[in-house]
Amino acid sequence: MNRDTYLIRSLLLGLLQDPSPTASSPSGDHVEGGSSLKSSHQAGPDTLSFETRDPLDSEEVSSPLPEVSQSQNLSESFSLFELGDIPAVQDRFQALLKRRLQTEIASRPPLFPWETEIQEYPIDYPTLAAAESTALPIWMAQLRSLSLPITLPDSVLASLLEQCQTIVQTSLKQGVKLVKVTEELFPDQPQALGEIARIITTSGYTSDKYAYRSAPELVKLPEGYETANPVQKIALSMLAAQEIMSSLTLNVSPQQPRLEREWLTANGLLKLEVIYQTESITVQAQLPCGGHLKLQAAGVQTLTERSQPGWLNVNLMQPELNQIYPLEVGLEGAEQQHPLQFVICPMEQTETLG
Questions:
Q1: Do the beta carbons of residue 197 and residue 181 sit within 8 Å?
Q2: Of 85, 204, 236, 254, which has the fewest Cβ atoms less than 10 A away?
Q3: What does the pLDDT look like over 285-330, one tens digit per residue?
Q4: How far apart are CA 304 and CA 214, in angstroms?
Q5: Neighbour tally for 293: CB within 10 Å
Q6: pTM to 2 decimals?
Q7: Where exactly are the structural domains of the chain?
Q8: Closest among 60, 64, 56 to 97, alpha carbons compared
Q9: Does 353 or 250 have the greater pLDDT score?
Q10: Which backbone phi and psi does 305 adopt, to 5 degrees?
């Protein structure tokens, strides 16, 4: 037997050997916390004297592997393990290596390239309240004053406002708008959304009337939004969305050429006045603080701003009937990234939403 084969078999037997708590190494050959392996100068090349001690191996072995005595012939010992047991040897070796690495990492954790010592980094996850504080906070005062039988959470109102500002600029039918605005809040209720939107639009429901003759499941109002059932939550959200879209839509016509609108903000009251003429639309806004107005048309936009509270004016020449013209109102401060989007709709005859 050559020396390489002898060493390989010795290592394999050392891994397969079941650790014995009573085993002890010969005097002078004990190695603290490890394994000692000794070949006697007087023994032949096929005779092995060793002890296996594995401080990391505390598992219970249901089927102990055969012990090898100091005088047992290595060839005879190795013949006890068939070739099919090699995967078991590999699994055991990998398990021991893994635990050894875990122990080393636990005692000496690795450092990032920029670290010289172990540091604990604070975990700062943004809460829902913190997220709401950066999402349209200056406009929330108006939403909290909506004429609803039950107060909706700020998170729901903020989501509705964000969706309404986008949907109100489309020419979709009112029922489709209600579905589009609320589907993000109720992604698993597509059928209920469509049915409740149909009831609200065809029956002329508003938050003031709140009459549910065609929807008996909504007659009994819940104590609060959180205790409402899904159908009630959808109905309440759609009624709120209907009011928000109505507040954001400025309909003017030859029969109603002047329209005033107010929006309560965290900085004070915003006042808007839209004056429609055949050849122009004029918007006058009284801002509670510094801000800007921007009126857009196809390929044209008019922008005016000021740094102090007061009035601003913008004009749109040659407006077309039944067109939608976005009107942006921005107030100074951190909320400048979230301006409020209105729409001006010159119509042949003024209509009301709902």
A1: no
A2: 204
A3: 999 999 999 999 887 889 999 999 999 999 999 899 999 999 999 9
A4: 48
A5: 24
A6: 0.60
A7: 3-107, 131-346
A8: 56
A9: 250
A10: -150, 165
